[in-house]
């Protein structure tokens, strides 16, 4: 698919910033849709199924974090890449957004060239997803289907974000093996995504909660990282 065929949804309430981003995208031959609120952004995402969404966190009404959460919980929009755009530099806001399923972020003020580069990376990943060639893994009460990105605990299918699934799948490849936070980041997100190792801790907490009693299988190795108990 060429860039001329790709539509980017921009959810941003500041007109000057939205205009700058839209101009930069159109110079690269992307089509753009603009929304000035979270509610409008959700409606346009469901209706148009854009190739990617640039999502500001600070929005009137429904904020960007809630929009991201709803996008990921809606089957019709769950696989659309989301690039967060925020004036907040606090680590917590970035981590929460990534944990909710955002794929990357840019902090204001930003370089349009950097924004475009990140968009191109996310679109390449979407067009050329890394296949999981590994077989189905069964470990105690856990069954992991890499090809379907599905995790079953007992007889219950568990909904995980992309990062949560990546962490669990990595740990399950070598039960008992300790993986550092840095290694987990490199494998599950890639070295080109600049986030801190704190993100891994937040995602593991969420993962354990979703897995219920089976979450106790994920063991913290103090000062090092995580492993799946043998």
Helicity level, as a percent range? 40-55%
Q: Examine the secondary-structure arrangement and name the CATH architecture of the largest domain.
A: 3-Layer(aba) Sandwich
The best one-word shape is elongated
Uncertain spans: 190-194
Helix/strand-derived class? alpha/beta
How many distinct folded domains?
Answer: 2
CATH superfamily of the largest domain: Response regulator
Strand order of the largest sheet: 2-1-3-4-5
Strand-residue proportion: 15-25%
Radius of gyration: 18 Å
Describe this structure in words.
- The protein has 230 residues and is α/β, with parallel strands linked by helices.
- The chain has two domains: 3-127, Response regulator (Rossmann fold, 3-Layer(aba) Sandwich); 137-228, Winged helix-like DNA-binding domain superfamily/Winged helix DNA-binding domain (Arc Repressor Mutant, subunit A).
- It is 40% helix and 21% strand.
- The chain has eight helices and twelve strands.
- It has helices at 15-27, 38-48, 64-73, 91-99, 112-127, 162-173, 181-188, 198-211, and strands at 7-11, 31-35, 52-56, 82-86, 104-107, 137-139, 142-145, 150-153, 156-158, 179-180, 218-221, 225-228.
- A five-stranded parallel β-sheet has the order 2-1-3-4-5, sandwiched between helices. Strands 6-7-8-9 form a four-stranded antiparallel β-sheet, with helices on one face. A three-stranded antiparallel β-sheet has the order 10-12-11.
- A hairpin with a 2-residue loop joins strand 6 and strand 7.
- Helix 2 packs parallel to helix 3, helix 4 runs parallel beside helix 8 and helix 6 (162-173) packs across helix 8 (198-211).
- The longest helix is centred in the middle third of the chain and has 16 residues, at 112-127.
